[in-house]
Amino acid sequence: MTTFASLDAGHGDEEIDLQRLHPASTAKLTLVSPTTPTVDLVRAEQAVTELLLSFGADLADESLAETPARVARAYAELLQPQPFSLTTFANDEGYDELVVTKDIPFHSLCEHHLLPFTGVAHVGYLPDERILGLSKLARVVEHFARRLQLQERLTSQVAAWLDEHLNPKGVGVVIEAEHQCMSLRGAKVKGSKTVTSALSGLVRHDQRTRAEFLSLVAAK
Ligand code: ZN
Fold it and tell me: Known catalytic residue: 110?
């Protein structure tokens, strides 16, 4: 088996060149492991206990007794993406139009308030030599959403990752999300959405491609 060290050194990716294993195959598989640190559940549980005590909670109350452990597990789940395999294929037929997956639902955790932000991502690319298994665009979004995050960073990380792993002619990512730190506290602007975008290559610089991507994203 031929195993490549990843371009993403230190990010835990591992590439296996299927073409060398099976010369007829044009598929290339990248195993993507979580890039988030593993969670110390015991420490998290202790910290939640302290947080609850600081608000005067009575942890002797039967209904609260297991809360620190439950909260620790809930945050662990929110912050740990599942590993996935990224399969790319040779673009044998020379497909040269945009590929866009719209309305990918996601949730993430705002690193400033530890409150969720939720919404949809629209992710597209203009293929060059390789194309991607379609469901994988959603997996890439989830991969970067399951961590302490900012919407701006999430948007640019998804775009940069696709640029690096797919080498397309261009990438476009638009994310629309509602932040509970804005809707439940502070400004309390319920229902307002924050929109961020990251465009690269021809999706950014070619007028026609850019306009087409943005109109595909805007279409209902
Ligand atoms: Zn926030």
Answer: yes
Decide: helix, strand or coil at residue 118. Answer: strand
Alpha carbons 64 and 78: distance in angstroms, whole number: 21
Concerning whether 113 is annotated as a catalytic residue, the answer is yes
Q: Residue 162 Cα, ligand 1 centroid: separation in angstroms?
A: 26
Do residue 122 and residue 198 come from a single domain? yes
Check whether residue 59 and residue 143 sit in a common domain: no
Structural contact between residues 163 and 127, judged by C-beta atoms closer than 8 angstroms: no
CATH number of the domain enclosing 196: 3.30.1130.10
**Same domain, yes or no, for 103 and 71?**
no
Catalytic residue among 122, 143, 165, 179: 179
Active-site residue, selected from the candidate residues 110, 122, 143, 149: 110
Question: In which domain, by residue range, is 181 found?
Answer: 91-218
Question: H or E element: which one contains 132?
Answer: strand 130-132
Q: In this structure, are 210 and 114 located in the same domain? A: yes
- Please state the domain count of the chain: 2
Query: Mean pLDDT in each 10-residue stretch from start to end of the chain (220 residues)?
Result: 34 48 65 80 96 95 96 93 86 93 97 96 96 91 95 98 95 97 83 95 97 93
Q: Give which of 11, 10, 28, 7 is closest to 19, Cα–Cα.
A: 28
Q: Tell me if residue 151 is catalytic.
A: yes
Cα–Cα nearest to 169, from 138, 199, 214, 135: 199
Contact 89, 27 (CB under 8 A): yes
pTM comes to 0.84
Residue 191 has a pLDDT of 84
